[in-house]
User: Fold this.
Amino acid sequence: MSSSVARKHNKSQSAYAFDNTTTSIAASQMRNHLNKLADTISQDDAAKDKFEGQMDSFFALFRRYLTDKAAGTAVDWDKIKSPNPEEVIRYNSLSESSPDNSKLLSKLAVLKLNGGLGTSMGCIGPKSVIEVRDGNTFLDLAVRQIEHLNRNYDSDVPLLLMNSFNTDSDTQHIVKKYSGHRIQIKTFNQSKFPRVFKDSLLPVPKNVDDPLSAWYPPGHGDLFESLTSSGKLDELLAEGKEILFVSNGDNLGATVDMKILNHMIETGAEYIMELADKTRADVKGGTLINYDGQVRLLEVAQVPKEHVEEFKSIKKFKNFNTNNLWINLKAIKRLVEQNKIEVEIIPNAKTINYDGQSDVPVLQLETAVGAAIRFFDNAHGVVVPRSRFLPVKTCSDLLLVKSDLFYLEHGALVLDPNRYDGNPLIKLGKSFKKVSEFNSRIPHMPKILELDHLTITGNVYLGKGVTLKGTVIIVCNDGDRIDIPNGSILENVVITGNLKILEH
Assistant:
């Protein structure tokens, strides 16, 4: 690292008090560095125009971040009210879908957020290609679901994948296998923004070809601008599509729901957010509120510290955002063209290895697509069944969706009707963090139809045909090993130490 860069990088954050003067200086320095970055492009004019367009978008985000910090904008807790009855409605109050489902589906496109990698579960490449059920990946299941709709209703619902620069190349290769299927797959990339040194507020990359660690995809709030700039929005509108159903690629419960689609068309709503009843496992999830007479999404990061526990309370904030969203395409076009979508900025602190130094603190400025709800007309939430929220973030979630608790039906997971209650609580320790470790320790899924709670930590292996009921806790001490033999039935037990269970 050059001495000048090192001095800038090591400058204390306190040098930026975020008043009007320092904000102006920081913005000017950023603009100059972004211009220099653009000058390092040796490709054709089209590539340079695209890059400069992304840097303009990033600069607008960065300048807004500085302005917000200088203004000290924060949520006024006294202005937060529960949503009005028309702002959050229950799923069971929706009318049944139109008998002409083919007509409804002709207006629909489905988008999966596909920018994430499977690194948190020890995998390389897009998370959407992790095998989750019966040899099927997240992407396989999404394709099967939509293909079934298209065949059953003689429709042409397209599947869009919003990739990031981390996932695009692998995804382009993978989607080729669906070329013979009855489904149209469209892909586009979200933006590629420069990370910023936390101390100096200068961009990390000095050249457009700098390593990927210098860049980041700016969260799914980038959907609106990227959908527009890619040309996919105009393409969908030209095909007569009106509504976009958006969901996280790892939410196996996010299937096309005809009642919600019909409700959106009947009411003329431009934006519908699916909510689910909050449990203690969802205390950090964003929730809809009424703020200054307007429906808004409140995230835990926006909550003043003294009110965080109140925010987590199940009594006051009863629902959370599943990130299953139904959005009107014409409304997206109108708002983007008018530059009206300015959602709250989420500063995400990270550390990277940079120029021979490790753990260099950086910021990446992100936005969330759910926060845009307040800009759309007649926007509201629908409290849906919990079955529509089935994310796979960890191997604990993977055990749940692979188990006998569910069966596959046209690519969708369906809860076994013999299950008497909601999903069991499953907690697997760090020995099960990676998918490869999970598969070696639990090569055969246990039967968990009557399970309430499972905790496994340490060096534990499950045999074939294991049944778990009630509350089962297995804790293996460091340096020891526990093997649960084939055919074991464990019900309301705590197992510790260094054991091989021989009979039950």
Notes: The chain has two domains: 77-388, 395-497. The two ends are 64 Å apart (CA to CA). The mean pLDDT is 90. The first helix runs from residue 3 to 10.
